Amino acid sequence: MLTQVPRRATRLLLAHSGRPSACLARSLPQSSLSSPLCGASYTSSRTFLSWFKSKPKDSPFAPHKTSGKDKTPVLSQDDLFHPFSKSPFPAIRARGEAIRQLAPCPVCAGEHNHGLHSHHGHETKAVSFECPDCGWPTHCSEEHWAKDKEHQKYCARLREVNEDEHDLRSGRRMREFELPGPQDSEAAISFANWDVFWYTREFPSMDSERSRRHASKILTYPITIGSVLHQFSNLTLSNQRLTPEGSRSLAALRTNLHVPPGAPETPEAAVTKPQMRIFILGARAESSLPPHVWEQLCMLFPSALFHLYFIGPQVSLPKPASEVNKMPKSSEAPAQSSTVATSESSSSSPNAKETTSEAAAASEQQPPTDPKEEKPVYLPNVYEPPTPAPIARLKRTRSSIEQYGVPSYTVPYTAQLTITGMQANYSEVHAQFQETFDPYTDCFFLFSPGLGFPSPNSVNEATGEPLLQVASPTEWGPVLPQLLATKCPIFVTGFSPADVERDVKSLSHAPDVAGEFDWVVTPGPNAFLSEKWEVADFDPRVMVKTNWGIWGIRGKRREVRERSGFLGLNL
Ligand SMILES: [Zn+2]
Ligand SMILES: [Zn+2]
């Protein structure tokens, strides 16, 4: 997915069917992808793993959100269900429109597929009838809706998503986005599951499933990373999620993440330590998470320093300074005031947490557009993923293009956290890091990279079939061998059991990858997944959960290097 077109509708459809490989990809109902909404200007729409589907503009309360957090909500908690076409929020109405254009009626499609000849008889019509129980456009007509017994399997979940989307925009105080400050050094954090994590990290209590879904969605990226790396990780030798090789890799990293046993975990202990470098490759939505959400990762490790690198063609970059300056603001602070307040405050500042829900709602995925252009209210999530909207320019944000040679920025957010974003394929910048990798300080995370999905750009010349992305020169083909050569651990997530399985299987046929790695973390569920269902606009029956599963590998150490003690650890 280090490509311009990393994830496509095909992936989601495959995930849904659970069937592997490229043959299905080619049998995609093209009609559903060739609607007017999928024209050139829509080639970049992936909100499948995106944050929330609104922009501040969409909702009347948003522009004033930080000014008074207890003001009257637009929607009350018993008024969260609205059919898409009747939603008070333009973004939700627009999403309904998008689905009507894209999704085929499943009953028509079934009749179509069972017919003897596809050219005769039934035409698959688009969905235009809204199910009264979930509010989503689901069938071409009430008749086909009534006929479809299968819909019951999806209806309750779809209704849940409908209400979640309205709740997010309801204007209520989103306590689940009020993130806690630094951890009490006496209190240990548990990573058994979200509940004990939130409890031991002193989050506000998540007293509804809905709150859990909202909070887990925004926290899944930083806490997935933290839960893997932390000494109290739930991935252990005894539950066989960690391998002996993995145990050595993590022990190496933990020498710099934690303090020696018995010593207090304090910021002072970080002074003499090297920065931990976490390379998040193929980053998209995660690169547009507000920095104070990423700070939650740092707070799990009070004695460590972090440098996060978001690298990928779809990394979100700051708004251009020229655009920021045009904003009607007092001239002194060339950025939005609320966000600047966040960035300038220390990690413990109460201001930091208040902008979370605003940022969450604002981080809709949008390709960068000319500021004068009218932005579409909603971009359907079916086609090709967009580059997230530009992120806020913080006061100390500086361009790094001179340093890395690609569009990039670096921001020293706090003393503990530095963030760099590079809008480039990783293989373009690998050479700059190649000599510096160190298994004691560096690791890689790939969130739903789609290794096992067919490349949209590269075909096998012998067979004419698309190459899998893991072996494709335009996607992960050159990257994985480079990562394995570093001997630093590589952690990978997937959005469903089928997605994880597909990616893992793809490794066994990839040149310079098959046979060249050791397992670090065995494939399996991730306790820190997003609990929110993500629904595909091209077929609302397709639903996945961000970071459902996780696994990890590392370049194989050859015998002679092992003997000489590559890590120098006696574990
Ligand atoms: Zn129909
Ligand atoms: Zn329904």
TrEMBL record:
Domain of life assignment: Eukaryota
Biased composition annotated in UniProt, kind: Low complexity: 337-367
GO molecular function terms attached to this record: zinc ion binding
Domain Mitochondrial splicing suppressor 51 zinc-finger: 105-168
Keywords associated with the record: Metal-binding, Zinc, Zinc-finger
Protein name: Zinc-finger of mitochondrial splicing suppressor 51-domain-containing protein
Classification via InterPro entries: Mss51-like_C, Mss51_Znf
Domain Mitochondrial splicing suppressor 51-like C-terminal: 222-331, 408-535
Location of the region described as Disordered in the Swiss-Prot/TrEMBL record: 320-384
A Pfam match: zf-Mss51
